[in-house]
Amino acid sequence: MTNNTNQSTEPLFQTFNSDNLVLENRTVMAPMTRGFSPGNIPDQNVADYYRRRAENGVGLIVTEGTGINHPASVSGASIPVFHGEKALEGWSNVVKQVHDAGGKIVPQLWHVGMTRSKGDLPNEEALPVGPSGLSLDGEPVTEPLTEQEIGELVEAYAQGAADAKRLGFDGIEIHGAHGYLIDQFFWANTNRRSDRYGGDLVGRTQFAVEVVKACRREVGPDFPIIFRFSQWKMNDFKAKLAETPDELERFLQPLVEAGVDIFHCSTRRFWEAEFEGSDLNLAGWTKKLTGKPVISVGSVGLDGEFTSFSGANTTSLDGLVEKLDQEEFDLVAIGRSLLMDPEWVRKVREGQENDLLPFDKEALQKLY
Question: Would the pTM count as exceeding 0.85?
Answer without folding.
Answer: yes
